Amino acid sequence: MKLLFTCVSLLVGICLSDGAASQLWLLTANNLTIKFEEENPEFWRTQAQETLQAALNRKLNTNVAKNIVLFLGDGMGITTMTAARILKGQLQNHTGEETVMTMDTFPHVGLAKVYAVDFQVPDSASTGTAYLCGVKTNFNVVGVSAAARNGLCETQKGNEVTSILHWAKEAGKSVGIVTTTRVQHATPAAAYAHSASRSWYSDADLPADAKRNGCTDIASQLINNTDIDVIIGGGRKYMSPNGTADPEYPTDPSANGLREDGRDLIKEWLKMKEGKAAQYVWNKADFDAIDPAKTDYLMALFEPGDMRYELDRDSKMDPSIVETTEKAIHILQKNPKGFFLLVEGGRIDQAHHNSLASKALHEAVALDYAVERALMLTNEEDTLTVVTADHSHPFTINGYTFRGNSILGKVPLWGTDFLPFTTLMYGNGPGHKIVNNKRPDIRKVDTKTKDYVQQAAVPMGKETHGGEDVAVLARGPMAHLFQGINEQSYIAHAMAYAACVGQNQRHCHVTMTTASPEHPPENTSGESVKIRSNLPANNAVEHCGRSDIDEIGGDTSYKMGKPATPIIDFSSILLRTKAEHFQIPIGRCRTVSYLMTIKLTEPQPHSDAKTALAGTLFARFKTRAHIENE
Predict the structure, then answer these.
(1) Regarding beta strands 424-429 and 456-459, do their DSSP bridges make them parallel or antiparallel, or are they unpaired?
(2) Out of 97, 161, 177, 530, which residue is the most buried by the measure of CB atoms under 10 Å away?
(3) Which of these, 417, 399, 416, 415, lies nearest to 407 by C-alpha position?
(4) Annotation says 124 is catalytic
């Protein structure tokens, strides 16, 4: 006999047909969570108009990014962001869905494609290499190109790739890493290490052939590769000699040091920093006592391995991600050249792998509070802030729940097996269970507890990653570059362009290689030609920020035999020469004089067809003119 109707509650009638495609009608007349003002169409029209006006009033910020703060939510796919938004609101006694997280306010949004070179669904090492080094690579390798092979030490040599953290350091900026995992984990490792295996945390993890071939572990690379100013996270045991008791858990053998080479990397790091304002701490009391004004280098390792989940954190021993982010910024921002800071909410991912949705979402909410604190401590005019994820998870919000229903709760609907299910579910993971050939009956189970293992469709010891695109949100200088759907490797290049580091510097500086503007080429024909430039208005100095432009162009043309400034309006150039090359000043930016070289590959004869000549010069100018630092 067909099941016609199943009544779920007194407030709602739910009808299930037994056809091939089930249909559901929710009678929500008595749904008390509906807000009165939202019944008025003007509420939504007014909200939309305000949003529209804000978008219309938005101006592009084309300043150079003095600072970059990259927030990486490990495993923070769009479903996780949505669920975290609802949870954040519900923790504040709101219905939740309408909540605006800090990261929601970022004006520029795009998507990143996360696949690895060899895998459709990636891991955090391959993705970290993409968004930090600007190069996609293979699954499980970190800081090397796809020419390297997973676990094969000999293939990593010569295939190392550097990260934006390294580029920023080379440019004279301070750099830092803050994570809630061990500092040797995949995401932070991509900022400084080169390894054919992300799992080579200490030398004890290196296989014999890797040691013979000269490969080094990730922990040793942390102190020996790029000079990192601030290192905050967990991972003490990978830095200490085998058997060394942990200072916080001296009686726990699982917390002991792991290194087989006898090296104490923490002591080595301190020795390397002798004569500098450097400190190492492992507990919150010492961390709180650090004066950023008197500290240039900080290593803070709060746990033997990963840091505790936010819901399990001992606030007397371990600082929050908000506190670690704040301390890092205070130390790094002393550098007048700026800084690059990577902040990872790494335990979002680890909670998802264990199907602990509550812990995953609380980690994401904590990351959002860290974003908020960073925005308070920096200036949008000179600091680019980016929020993104490395990958997602097979994590869903499902089941026609009422507005305001706990995001960690149950759906007011039963399946065809007469059993309830949760709003949040996983496609696979340890939450799949069968009891007497049925799903477990969770009617009397509190699904809101921090350790509740969420239901899953496919049984697996650990839940996997997801392969769909992830969000990229940005605000600050050149944030408009983060739009559209791009390869994940694009992120590093866009950040570098904004900050004028790495290979993306030519647009930021200008110089000449031929004749001096004080000695313009001699005019032998006396004929004037107006030439269209390939530069849009103010292009050459646009990236300096309009407020920093001291002057643009001149108001006189070349007078042969006498130094003079040519007319420049950035859309046309008045020239009186038939020389093969010449230079013209085009303005100043932050006390730097800007000039442009125009070089012709062959002498251009003057003719009555001025437009033809202008077109020829334009073609040469477009391909041969260049702008560099004076």
Answers:
(1) parallel
(2) 177
(3) 399
(4) yes
Is 572 in contact with 526 (CB distance < 8 Å)?
no
Per the prediction, the chain carries an average pLDDT of 82
Nearby residues of 145 by Cβ (< 8 Å), 6 or more positions away: 135, 137, 159, 160, 161
Query: Which pair of structure tokens corresponds to residue 458?
Result: 């496919």
Is 390 annotated as belonging to a binding site? yes
365, 370, 376, 382 alpha-carbon torsion, rounded to 10°: -120
Residue 350 vs residues 114, 347, 393, 465: alpha-carbon distances, Å: 18, 5, 11, 10
Q: What was the pLDDT predicted at 396?
A: 98
CATH 3.40.720.10 fits 67-393+465-504, yes or no: yes
Choosing from 9, 22, 124, 533, which is the catalytic residue?
A: 124
18 is in an annotated binding site: no
Instruction: Confirm whether residue 344 is marked as ligand binding.
Output: yes
Question: Is 465 among the annotated ligand-binding positions?
Answer: yes
327-351 pLDDT, tens digit per residue, is 999 999 999 999 999 999 999 999 9
Domain locations in the chain?
A: 5-32+397-459, 67-393+465-504, 507-624
498: its two tokens: 């904004």
Kindly state the tokens that stand for 556. Answer: 């006189």
Euclidean distance between CA atoms 190 and 204, whole angstroms: 20
Strand spans (E) along 245-394:
278-281, 297-301, 339-345, 383-389
| CA dist., res. 568 & res. 572, Å (int) | 7
Residue 336, pLDDT score: 97
Residue whose C-alpha is closest to residue 508's, from 621, 630, 599, 332: 630
